[in-house]
Design a protein that fits this description.
By secondary structure, the chain is an alpha/beta fold. Helices cover about 25% and strands about 25% of the residues.
Length: about 400
């Protein structure tokens, strides 16, 4: 385990003086030691696939916001999509290329400054973040579905509307500092490492799909198709919430073994076994819930086949092309089909509660760490699954182990 941080480091709390560092607003509370610099290192997206390490001004928190000194950030498959293809990021009303945009969204860090009137947190607190802060005005935000905010990407660079999605519509975490709305930060326990704290967004996404959107209750059956980060933590969350049986399918035995460690009652390597046969044998009539994490035509149609009548299918992947699906079977069997985007309704806080209580070990999916300056190498490992990389973490400070652990 990489060295664990504390909730409020002594060098921050030793200086309780309030300092107007680089911030002109006298109502902003900032750290005195270490001081907040005026500029920071940040990776900037140029054209498709082009990232350059540059320098940006440290942003200033406004009312209801905090400045987070980023300590670690995990690489998500969506980051790779944004870097290569632009979507689903949207900057200034269009694709994010050549707009001085910094991607990255699964980060944690230490609060470095408080915006005006912010008293919910203190300078020096370790926090992890979720991506979306909705506008709080549209229909979806008022329902708590702020990941489906109707003002997503429509503020054209201005956050005055209220909406921000760091790493998507506003600057993200491949940098040394970022601004977060206070509703998007969650305290990190003393005994949780920086690396583990970056995984809360992934666990929160799985939680959102299973509980807030899906309505999972204990005793219902769950099949997870695809042992990527979201799939593996979906297994962990489902097991922690009392689902039974929890079945995980995939083609990589090493990842399936991790799934067993995270609580899968049965793993199925679909190159050797028939998933539908296993599901029917264990459930009798098919699964109550299927979490589809591959986004492929065959996989989605297989999900339809193994879901029982009245069951639910959560689509957790971004298909690259339109999918031809057996909608007839969906209709005839009254199957509920829904997509998931991010981690709404404060699902990350509930995921953090499970992780803090040690209901599952999310660090099992963290395989590699790199420094911020080595981000291109980290992306190469994540994209090409070098050394069976699952979740790759980039650190801006502290000890970095290039290969934290290998998948057994």
């Amino acid at each position: 385990m990489i060295s664990k941080g504390c909730n409020r480091s002594s060098d921050w709390l030793a200086n309780k003086d309030r300092l107007k560092m680089v911030f002109p607003d006298e109502t902003i509370t900032a750290a005195k030691s270490p001081p907040v610099p005026s500029t920071m290192r940040a990776w900037i997206l140029g054209g498709p696939g082009e990232l350059k390490l540059g320098e940006k001004p440290v942003p200033t928190p406004k009312r209801g916001e905090v400045l987070v000194r980023i300590d670690a950030v995990a690489i998500c498959a969506t980051d790779l999509e944004i870097i290569d293809h632009g979507t689903p990021a949207m900057i200034q009303g269009g694709l994010p290329f050549n707009k001085n945009f910094t991607p990255g969204h699964e980060y944690m860090g230490t609060i470095a400054a408080l915006g005006p009137s912010v008293d919910e947190y203190q300078v020096g607190e370790r926090v992890t973040v979720e991506i979306h802060a909705g506008c709080a005005q549209c229909k979806r935000c008022r329902q708590g579905m702020y990941t489906s905010c109707h003002n997503y990407g429509l503020n054209y660079g201005s956050v005055d509307k209220g909406h921000r999605a760091n790493g998507f519509t506003t600057d993200g975490g491949f940098a040394e500092y970022a601004i977060n709305n206070i509703n998007t930060v969650t305290p990190v326990p003393d005994d949780m490492s920086d690396e583990e704290a970056t995984l809360v967004v992934t666990a929160g996404t799985s939680m959102y799909g299973l509980t807030e959107l899906g309505g999972l209750v204990a005793g219902e059956s769950v099949v997870v198709m695809g042992p990527g980060p979201i799939g593996l933590l979906a297994v962990a969350v489902a097991n922690a919430l009392g689902a039974y049986p929890v079945i995980l399918s995939g083609t990589r035995d090493a990842r399936l073994r991790i799934g067993s460690q995270l609580g899968a009652d049965r793993v199925v390597n679909i190159t050797n076994e028939n998933l539908a046969s296993v599901v029917m044998e264990m459930t009798g009539r098919g699964a109550d819930y299927v979490i589809e994490c591959a986004g492929a035509c065959a996989s989605i149609n297989d999900a339809v086949k193994i879901t029982n009548r009245g069951g639910k299918i959560c689509l957790a992947a971004f298909p690259h092309e339109p999918i031809v699906a057996d909608i007839g079977s969906v209709v005839k069997n009254n199957i509920y089909l829904y997509g998931i985007r991010g981690e709404g309704k404060s699902a990350t806080r509930r995921a953090m509660a499970l992780m803090a209580a040690k209901r599952f070990d999310a660090t099992l999916i963290h395989t590699h760490s790199f420094s911020l300056s080595d981000l291109p190498t980290a992306i190469h490992y994540a994209r090409n699954r070098i050394d069976d990389a699952i979740k790759v973490v980039v650190k801006t400070r502290g000890v970095v182990e290039t290969a934290r652990k290998r998948v057994a």
